[in-house]
Design brief:
The complex is a heterodimer of chains A (115) and B (111). Chain A is mostly beta strands. Chain A is built from no helices and 13 strands. In chain A, the strands form three sheets. In chain A, strands 2, 4, 5, 6, 9, 12 and 13 form a seven-stranded mixed sheet that branches. In chain A, strands 1-3-8-7 form a four-stranded antiparallel sheet, with no helix packed on it. A two-stranded antiparallel sheet of chain A has the order 10-11. Chain B is mainly beta and 111 residues long. Classes of the chains: A mainly beta (115), B mainly beta (111). The interface between A and B is medium-sized, with 28 and 21 residues.
Chain lengths: 115, 111
C-alpha cells in the first residue's frame, strides 16, 4: 500500500514563474491538505480539499491555488513566484473513520527553490 | 493569533540518555499530537492525546496532555541514534487536516 506520494521531489524556478506540485493520497483517503515548511520552521497549513472543493484555507495569498481530482489526487499551483516561496511543500491525506478518528499521513514533500 | 511554543529549540544528548521536551499553547485545545520529522521526509505521527491528564506511551516514547489543556510533554527514554530528527507538537485546527504546528525541537544523539 503506497503512502502519500508527491512529485517532483526537487525543483528550481525563477522569480515570477509559476509552479505546479502534485500529490497522490494514501489509498482510501479522500481529504488532502497542503502545507508549506520554510527552512527551520514547522509546517504551515495552506488549504484543504475534500470532494474536489477547497474547504479550508490558511493565511496564504491568492497566488496559491489548488485542485482536487475525482480520484482524490491533488495539485498545488503557485503563481508569480517570490524568493520567499522557497520551501518544502508537504501534502497530507486522511480519511475519517468513526472508530479511530482521523489519522493524517504526510508525503515526503517537494522542495521548491526560487532563484 | 494562536501560538505554540516548544522548548528546548535544540538538544544534544549522549546515546542512552533520556530526553524531555515540552510544548505550550496560548489557548485551550482538546487534542495534542506529537510528530517526528527525519531529514528530507515528511512528519510522522508518534503519539496522539485526546484527554486532559492523559498519559500515553509508544515504545520508548511517552507523552502527556497537561491538565490545564494548554501544554504537553514528550519523553524519550534510552535514546538511540535513530531518534535524531525534529520533534513537533501540533494541534488540530477547525478542519479535518488543518494542523497547527509548533516551532520544533531538534534532537541530536551523539553515539
Amino acid at each position: 500500500d503506497a503512502g502519500v506520494t508527491q512529485s517532483p521531489t526537487h525543483l528550481i524556478k525563477t522569480r515570477g514563474q509559476q509552479v505546479t506540485l502534485r500529490c497522490s493520497p494514501k489509498s482510501g483517503h479522500d481529504t488532502v491538505s497542503w502545507y508549506q515548511q520554510a527552512l527551520g520552521q514547522g509546517p504551515q497549513f495552506i488549504f484543504q480539499y475534500y470532494e474536489e472543493e477547497e474547504r479550508q484555507r490558511g493565511n496564504f495569498p491568492d497566488r496559491f491555488s489548488g485542485h482536487q481530482f475525482p480520484n482524490y489526487s491533488s495539485e498545488l499551483n503557485v503563481n508569480a513566484l517570490l524568493l520567499g516561496d522557497s520551501a518544502l511543500y508537504l501534502c497530507a491525506s486522511s480519511f475519517y473513520d468513526r472508530g479511530s478518528g482521523n489519522t493524517i499521513y504526510f508525503g515526503e514533500g517537494s522542495w521548491l527553490t526560487v532563484v | 493569533g494562536q501560538q505554540l511554543n516548544q522548548s528546548p529549540q535544540s538538544m544534544f544528548i549522549q546515546e542512552g540518555e533520556d530526553v524531555s521536551m515540552n510544548c505550550t499553547s496560548s489557548s485551550i485545545f482538546n487534542t495534542w499530537l506529537w510528530y517526528k520529522q527525519d531529514p528530507g521526509e515528511g512528519p510522522v505521527l508518534l503519539i496522539a492525546l485526546y484527554k486532559a491528564g492523559e498519559l500515553t506511551s509508544n515504545g520508548r516514547l511517552t507523552a502527556q496532555f497537561g491538565t490545564t489543556r494548554k501544554d504537553s510533554f514528550l519523553n524519550i527514554s534510552a535514546s538511540i541514534p535513530s531518534d535524531v530528527g525534529i520533534y513537533f507538537c501540533a494541534l488540530n485546527g477547525t478542519g479535518a487536516n488543518n494542523l497547527f504546528f509548533g516551532t520544533g525541537t531538534r534532537l541530536t544523539v551523539i553515539p
